[in-house]
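Milestone M4 deliverable, item 7.
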Amino acid sequence: MADISRRAFLRRSALAGAALKVGLLSPQLASASTAGKMSIARYKSSPSERDGVAEEAVRLTRQVIRDIGGMSRFVSKGNVVWVKPNIAWDRTPEQAANTNPDVVATIVKMCYEAGAKQVIVGDNPCNAQERSYPNSGIRPAAEKAGARVTYLDKRKFKNMALKGKALKEWEMYIDMIEADTFINVPIAKHHRLAGATLGMKNLMGVCGGARSRFHQDLSNVLADLAAFVKPKLVVLDAIRVLPVNGPQGGKLEDVKRKDTLVAGVDQVAIDTLGAKLLGMEPKKIGHIVEAQARGLGTMNYKSLSPVESLV
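Output delivered:
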């Protein structure tokens, strides 16, 4: 396939930069530069019944995004938004292998409330998408919220120049790259090779091709992806977490409750806190250390003065 640079699909960003130089940037975007970089919302209890967990997810999602400046900070009127959960596995929400469906649905609703023209939800799963999408609960929840939930079209993976340490180029899903706003919505869980699946690991779902090759150098691959994709917003689901036997799990006894959501713009900070929520030492997780070394964010998430709420 022909090599396509990411810049070719982000001309709007270049125009926005030019507008900034001449003082034409909108007040909304200008204020975003001084807004908070991270927020943490925790729930007061750990409800076990389905309706209770759903209510928790809705309240935490709205709070954690409100605390970082609201969805209108990231989504403007008329935007096409791609919401990228982890829908990798044919597992139920209770098994904590995929992102909480009510978190995803609430983000979809908030995008429309901010004026989005269209919200698309999709992933490149490991298990068959025909099973993972419905059994995760994400497809029905997101569609009910108004999203277009889509299976990825293999014809839309295009070879792009990532210019990374491990990935000089790779097949990336063009619709995700072209979206006006890309929101990364991972779940916190263990991963046998990467140490943890968090925000940066979730970006593998933007990629096509033989992703098994990534496992030879995950630390650099995941940092390459973080540097290339650069989500506008990351919302980490740690309501249920999987601290062992990830990434696909399957045993309910492996699932732990943290009843927490984290939102922010610093991918390294969010993955650092996510690792801590899993009971892991972030400095032992290669891609987090590598991403900080490249200047993609800070492992000292407390230096960002995160807004913390108890809901």
